[in-house]
Amino acid sequence: MQLLGIGPLELLLIAVIAVIVLGPKGMVSGAREAGKAIRKIIRSPIWHEIVDTSREIREFPKIFAREAGIEKDLEDLRRSTQGTLNEINRSHHPQISPVKKLEGNETSTDASLKEDEV
Is the pLDDT of residue 106 over 60? Predict the structure, then answer.
């Protein structure tokens, strides 16, 4: 699991360095200040504008398709490609048959190999 490109070991290393540099009391006050800064950023009007803009960007393809009148064509294309993908998955997954035991410790594949050698 990664958080902002930082793995768990890197996060642990950062925490250890922070405890060494700031000390236990400094960690508490540092975390409090970081929380206040994050709260201030999230409640700012600039943050709301950024969130609204990112939402508009995510919805832009749907709006564009609706205005161009190609929504139905896109849905038909999705259905046909999904059906094709299902057919490909069914045809490319070989069916494995169970191996049957023959005489002694030989399996049916071992016996067929021996028959081919003869």
Answer: no
